[in-house]
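Input C-alpha cells:
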C-alpha cells in the first residue's frame, strides 16, 4: 500500500514537472513570437551590410559604405512599415482586400516601382537638396549623408512605434537639410529646391483631396444616384478602369521603358490612351458578367468596384515604390558615389544593389510591421466602402505618379491622407446638400444644434490636429537630430 502511495506521489510530481515544462514552452513560444519580425528585420539589415561590403571591398571606404547600407536598409524597413499603410489601408478598410492579399500585392508592386522608376527622385534626394561641392571634403559630405539617413530612420521608427502618421519624405529631407547646414552653413542648402519641395507638401494633400472628391462626385452623380444603378455601373465602371490603366501605361512608358528606348511625352500619352481604350473594351463584358443578377441597390455596387479598387491599390504601390525608395537609398547613393570616386561631385549611375536594398527593404517592412498601421489608416479617419476607397487610391496614385515623373519627392502620406479627408468632407457636404434639397427651401429650415452637427460629421476631427502636428514637427525634429549625429560622426569618424 505504501509502495503504491509512493508511486502515486512520484507520478503526481512528474505530472507537475511536465506541466511546468509545458507552461514554460508555451510562455517561451509566446515571448519569442513577437521577436520573429525584429529577428527577420535584423537579418535583412546585416545582409545588406555584408552585401555592400562584398560589392565595394574590404577597404576603409567599404566599411563606411557597409555602415551606410545598414542604415539605408533600416530606413527602408521603416518606410514599408509606415508609408505603405497609406496605400493599402483604404482597400483593406473597405474589405475589398484581405490583409494577406494587400501585403502580397504591395510587396510585388512596391519592388517593381522602386527598381523600374525610382532613379529620378533618388537624384533629387541625394544631390538636389545639398550641393556636394559646397561641403568640400568628401569625408565631410559622407558623414553628413550618414547623419541624415540615420536621423530620419530613427525618427520614423519612433513615430511608427507610437502610431504617429509622419512622412518619411519629410524625415529624410529634414535630415539632409540639418546635416548640410551643420556641415557648411545655410549656403550649402539649395533653398529654391527646398521651397519647391515645401510647396509640394502643401499642394499635394490639397490636390489629392480635390481629385478624390471629384471622382467620388462623378461616381455618385453617374452611378449611385441613378434610378438603375446597375445599368449605369455597366457603362461607367469600365470607363474608370480604362482611365486608370491608361494613366499607369503612360507613366510606365515614360519611366520604365525610357531605360531601354527613348519615348517622348506625346508618344507616352498615345500608348496610355491606346491601352486605356483596350482595357475599357475588355472590361465591358467582364463588368456585364459580374453585374448579372445583382439587385439594384448601393450594396451591389461594391461587387463591381472590387477589380478597380485592387488595380488602383497596385498602381499606388508602384508609384509609391518609385517615389519613396529615394528616402531609403538617396543618401546611400550619394555616399557610394563619394567613396567610389573620392569626390563628392562625381556623377555616376546609381548601383543596382543600392536600389535592391531600398526595394526589398520596403517590402520586408510592410510584411513584418505594416498590418497595424494599415488597419488604422483604413478605418479610423472616415468610413470607407469600395467606391470611396477606389477614389482615394486612384487620386493618390495620380498625384504620386505626376510627382515622381517630375522628380519631386512629395509625401505619399500627405497625398493619401489628404485624399481620405477629401472623400470624407465631400460626403459631409453632399449629405447636407441632399438633406436640405429634400426638405425644401434652406432659408426655411431651422439651424441644427451643436449635438446634431457633431452627429452629422463623417470625418474624425481629432485626426486633423494629430496629423497636422506630426507633419509640422517632423522636419525640424529630424534636422536637429541630424545635426547632432553629424557632429558625433564627424568627431569620431576616420
Amino acid at each position: 500500500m505504501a509502495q503504491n502511495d509512493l508511486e502515486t506521489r512520484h507520478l503526481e510530481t512528474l505530472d507537475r514537472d511536465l506541466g511546468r515544462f509545458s507552461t514554460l514552452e508555451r510562455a517561451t513560444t509566446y515571448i519569442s513570437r513577437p521577436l520573429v519580425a525584429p529577428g527577420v528585420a535584423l537579418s535583412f539589415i546585416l545582409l545588406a551590410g555584408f552585401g555592400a561590403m562584398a560589392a565595394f571591398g574590404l577597404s576603409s571606404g567599404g566599411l563606411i559604405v557597409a555602415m551606410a547600407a545598414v542604415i539605408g536598409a533600416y530606413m527602408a524597413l521603416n518606410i514599408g512599415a509606415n508609408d505603405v499603410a497609406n496605400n493599402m489601408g483604404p482597400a483593406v478598410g473597405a474589405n475589398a482586400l484581405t490583409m494577406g492579399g494587400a501585403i502580397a500585392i504591395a510587396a510585388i508592386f512596391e519592388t517593381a516601382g522602386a527598381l523600374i522608376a525610382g532613379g529620378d527622385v533618388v537624384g533629387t534626394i541625394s544631390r538636389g537638396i545639398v550641393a556636394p561641392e559646397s561641403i568640400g571634403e568628401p569625408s565631410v559630405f559622407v558623414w553628413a549623408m550618414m547623419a541624415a539617413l540615420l536621423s530620419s530612420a530613427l525618427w520614423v521608427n519612433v513615430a511608427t512605434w507610437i502610431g504617429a502618421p509622419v512622412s518619411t519624405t519629410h524625415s529624410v529631407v529634414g535630415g539632409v537639410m540639418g546635416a548640410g547646414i551643420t556641415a557648411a552653413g545655410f549656403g550649402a542648402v539649395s533653398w529654391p529646391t527646398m521651397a519647391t519641395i515645401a510647396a509640394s507638401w502643401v499642394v499635394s494633400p490639397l490636390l489629392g483631396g480635390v481629385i478624390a472628391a471629384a471622382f467620388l462626385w462623378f461616381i455618385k452623380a453617374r452611378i449611385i444616384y441613378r434610378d438603375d444603378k446597375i445599368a449605369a455601373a455597366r457603362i461607367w465602371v469600365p470607363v474608370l478602369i480604362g482611365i486608370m490603366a491608361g494613366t499607369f501605361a503612360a507613366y510606365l512608358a515614360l519611366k520604365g521603358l525610357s531605360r531601354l528606348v527613348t519615348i517622348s511625352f506625346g508618344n507616352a500619352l498615345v500608348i496610355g490612351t491606346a491601352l486605356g481604350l483596350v482595357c475599357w473594351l475588355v472590361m465591358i463584358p467582364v463588368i456585364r458578367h459580374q453585374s448579372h443578377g445583382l439587385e439594384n441597390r448601393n450594396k451591389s455596387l461594391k461587387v463591381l468596384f472590387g477589380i478597380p479598387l485592387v488595380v488602383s491599390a497596385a498602381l499606388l504601390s508602384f508609384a509609391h515604390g518609385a517615389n519613396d525608395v529615394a528616402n531609403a537609398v538617396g543618401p546611400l547613393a550619394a555616399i557610394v558615389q563619394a567613396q567610389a570616386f573620392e569626390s563628392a561631385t562625381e556623377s555616376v549611375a546609381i548601383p543596382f544593389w543600392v536600389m535592391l536594398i531600398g526595394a526589398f527593404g520596403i517590402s520586408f517592412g510592410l510584411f513584418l510591421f505594416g498590418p497595424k498601421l494599415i488597419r488604422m489608416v483604413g478605418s479610423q479617419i472616415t468610413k470607407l466602402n469600395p467606391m470611396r476607397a477606389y477614389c482615394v487610391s486612384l487620386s493618390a496614385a495620380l498625384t504620386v505618379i505626376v510627382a515622381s515623373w517630375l522628380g519631386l519627392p512629395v509625401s505619399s502620406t500627405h497625398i493619401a491622407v489628404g485624399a481620405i479627408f477629401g472623400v470624407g468632407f465631400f460626403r459631409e457636404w453632399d449629405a447636407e446638400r441632399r438633406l436640405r434639397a429634400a426638405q425644401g427651401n434652406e432659408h426655411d429650415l431651422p439651424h441644427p444644434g451643436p449635438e446634431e452637427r457633431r452627429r452629422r460629421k463623417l470625418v474624425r476631427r481629432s485626426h486633423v490636429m494629430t496629423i497636422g502636428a506630426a507633419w509640422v514637427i517632423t522636419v525640424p525634429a529630424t534636422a536637429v537630430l541630424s545635426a547632432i549625429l553629424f557632429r558625433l560622426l564627424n568627431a569620431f569618424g576616420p
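The longest helix spans residues 2-56. The radius of gyration is 26 Å.
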